[in-house]
Amino acid sequence: MSAGDGGVPRTRVPRLPPESPPAPPGPALLRQRWSDVVFLHWPVDPARVAPLLPPGTRPDLFEGVAYAGLVAFRMPVNSVAGRLPVGGFDEVNVRVYSVDRHGRRGVVFLSMDAGAAHAVAAARLLTGLPYLWSDISLARGRDGLRAGAVRRRAPGRAAGRWAVRAGEPLERPGPLEHFLTARWGLHTRHLGRTWWLRADHRPWPLHRAEFLRYEGDLLGAAGLVPLTGRPVSALWSPGTDTGFTVSLV
């Protein structure tokens, strides 16, 4: 144990997250399918990340470095309590990585562009997550080409476009790939509290990806300044099914 936020003891965190999620405490409140997923990651200064995180959390670091991700995917399945379908949509999010005083590691979303206005309104109201209504185009091309573009409608006017080429499967992700993708929950601030949402899904089936291009201001609009011009990690996944449960931090 070591001193945490506000002098509260916190758990010493292992170098890497566990390879699979902890058992969920009960039935999932929300189920989603994420498919055709592109992961791009840049190193960022932990000092820039810390003010962007919910109270009770701090930047989760890999060898002293924080990372920011641009992640794009299709969500064909989205249901409440596994029974009530609420409609799928495409999403592009900007994320950083967090750990709380209990040692729970997760994602903090700084922006979540979605192509469905009703989903944006409902998610912002119910969860406080930073969903934004945007025009999104995700395309599949020959020889593994995956390209995308987003233009934000409201709030704000950020935009971006990217392309990668999906390659061979990773038999076993390296330490950095594991750190960036083995995220079994998220932290969010809502109704005056920091919430922990558990994510229950099988480990990502990951493929290498050749980075082709990125241009835009999606990371800058989220308050981030990458330390490199090109991402240091580019990955693709066919996807996974996920269930979420909620608890207070």
TrEMBL record:
Renumbered to this chain, the Pro residues biased-composition regions fall at 15-27
Q: Which Pfam families match?
A: DUF2071
Source species, please?
Nocardiopsis flavescens
Region annotation Disordered: residue ranges? 1-27
**Classification via InterPro entries:** ADC_dom_sf, DUF2071
Q: Could you identify this protein by its name?
A: DUF2071 domain-containing protein
Q: Which domain of life is it from?
A: Bacteria
Q: SUPFAM superfamilies this protein is in?
A: Acetoacetate decarboxylase-like (SSF160104)
